[in-house]
Amino acid sequence: MIKELDEPEVPSVFICPISLEPMQDPVTLCTGQTYERSNILKWFNLGHFTCPTTMQELWDDSVTPNKTLPQLIHTWFAQKYLQMKKKSQDLIRNASEALDRMTVMVDLQGVTRGVLVGRCGCRSCGETASCFFKLVVILC
Length: 140
Prior knowledge:
Elements (H helix, E strand, L loop, with lengths): L25 E3 L5 E3 H9 L18 E2 L2 H53 L4 H15 L1
Antiparallel strand pairs: 1-2, 1-3
C-alpha cells in the first residue's frame, strides 16, 4: 500500500532534456525543441550554438516562451498532489480503523480472560485456553 505513494512518473514532455528536471520556464528553440530557459541559456553561454537534442546548428539563437506548457505542468502537478493527498488520507484512515479493531480485540481478550478466570477459577495460560475452548463450544 505504501508503494501507492511512490512518486508518479512525470510526463517526458514536462522534463527539460538538459537537466532532466520538470520545467518551470520552458522556452522553444527554432528547431522546435523545448528547454528550461536557464539551462538553454547556460548551454549558449558555454559557446554551443546547436540544439542539444538534435545537434542541429541553430540559424536563430532566440528563445520563444512556451506559454501553454507551464499551465499544463502546473495542472498535472496539482492533480497528482490531490491524488497523493487523498491516498495518504485513506491510508491514515485505514490504519486508524485497524488500530481501533486491534484495541477492541485486546479489550475483548482481557474481558474474556476475566470471565474465564471468574467462571472456572483457572489461573494459568493453559487452563485459560482450555476454558476458552469450552466457552467457544458452549456459545456455538
